[in-house]
Amino acid sequence: MFTGIIEEVGRVTGITNENENRRLTVAASHLVKELKKGDSIAVSGVCLTAVEITPASFGADLAEETWNRTSFSRIKPRALVNLELPMRADGRFGGHIVQGHVDGTGKLIALDEIPGVDNYWLRVEIPPDLLRYVIFKGSLSIEGISLTIAKIQGTEVTAAIIPHTTEMTNLKSLQPGDSVNLEVDVIAKYVEKMMRGDPSKGSITIEQLVEQGF
After folding, report:
1. Contact 3, 88 (CB under 8 A)
2. Quick one: average pLDDT of 135-151?
3. What is the SS3 string spanning the chain?
4. How far is residue 94 from each of residues 22, 74, 110, 147, 175, measured CA to CA in Å?
């Protein structure tokens, strides 16, 4: 499990493809010191397994599902990617629950500086089938970054970005039209499943959700 708090920005050094077996190699200076073969690491919001580790990089194999569902298919060498190691059991929960299981990709519309302040508006178009999981002031992982939704207009969602986030992530390296990885709040998906059940068989109700503060 991850929290969406980016620890380092890595740089893609290569994507090899041999007999439909793809391997992504990422250069990183800090997190590789903590990695062991078989460890999980989130790469721009995608949970991958490190299978090859050097003092300055790590390699991870990409399943066909990962390739098709994420933004990796548009990534080229030298692209910047957000990195996060799994949350420690005794660690502080700084963002929100992020599994590293990408639900789909969105399209970057713009990263606009807000006049008069140092903050930015990040605007992303998301797939219509993910809209039901996105609410005002709710959480959404974009490129592995835990963000809070500030506006929703049709299929366009907007999040406020502080300077620290732009400096510590790959956001400023992206261009309008680039695809970005999206993971909706897993709690919303569990609530949806429970709401579809039969109340007589123990499924949750609107009244119960209200009682619990949802």
Report:
1. no
2. 96
3. CECCCCCEEEEEEEEEEECCEEEEEEECCCHHHCCCCCCEEEECCEEEEEEEEECCEEEEEECHHHHHHCHHHHCCCCCEEEEECCCCCCCCCCCCCECCCCCEEEEEEEEEECCCCCCEEEEEECCHHHHHHCCCCCEEEECCEEEEEEEEECCEEEEEECHHHHHHCCHHHCCCCCEEEEEECHHHHHHHHHHCCCHHHCCCCHHHHHHCCC
4. 33, 30, 26, 11, 28
Give the tens place of pLDDT for each residue, 4-45.
999 999 999 999 988 778 999 999 999 999 999 999 999 999
Percentage, residues of the chain above pLDDT 70 = 92
Q: 61 - beta bridge partners? A: 23
Q: Could you identify the residue written with the tokens 């391997």?
A: 23
Token readout for 42 is 């989130």
* Whole-number Å distance between alpha carbons of 65 and 103: 11
Task: Determine the distance from the C-alpha atom of residue 207 to the mean position of all C-alpha atoms in its chain, rounded to a whole number.
Answer: 32
| CB distance 60 to 49 below 8 Å | yes
